[in-house]
Amino acid sequence: MKYLIALMFLFIFNVSTASENSIFGLWKTQDQRAKVKISSCPTNAEELCGIIVELRDPFDPETGEDKTDKLNSDPVLKNRKLLGLMNLTGFKTASQDPRHWTDGKIYSPREGETYSCEMSLIEPNTLEVRGYIGLPIFGKTQTWTRTTTDEKLQSFPDAE
């Protein structure tokens, strides 16, 4: 019986620790324009991917239709909807730090560009996302915050 109780305690402790260190879930971007769901990639469960699941402003003000990837340089992709777009791909856990992911790509619909990217889970609800060209030193870091489906994205006039 003692063995069973000890085993249950270890299982509960490991589950809570894993969830605190998990990058999986829903994240709002620094400018709160979008929520991105991070999970295992559909084609490779060893890698992480992210999909845009909510937009603060989902409709194009010019057309009234769903926003599309109109800034993409590839004409074939210009008409794909932003909602449901996979904008994070190919992240691998860094061997030296299980709270850091490297070798990924981030796609910015606001620029129509794809950048190399790495992510670090700073706290259970704080994720640093660094997009860069070439070397990480030539990049920009955003802080994303864990969120829920119920939490609304806010508009900040200075961040527009």
From TrEMBL:
<dbReference type="InterPro" id="IPR019223">
    <property type="entry name" value="DUF2147"/>
</dbReference>
<dbReference type="Pfam" id="PF09917">
    <property type="entry name" value="DUF2147"/>
</dbReference>
<feature type="signal peptide">
    <location>
        <begin position="1"/>
        <end position="18"/>
    </location>
</feature>
<feature type="domain" description="DUF2147">
    <location>
        <begin position="25"/>
        <end position="146"/>
    </location>
</feature>
<protein>
    <submittedName>
        <fullName>DUF2147 domain-containing protein</fullName>
    </submittedName>
</protein>
<keyword id="KW-0732">Signal</keyword>
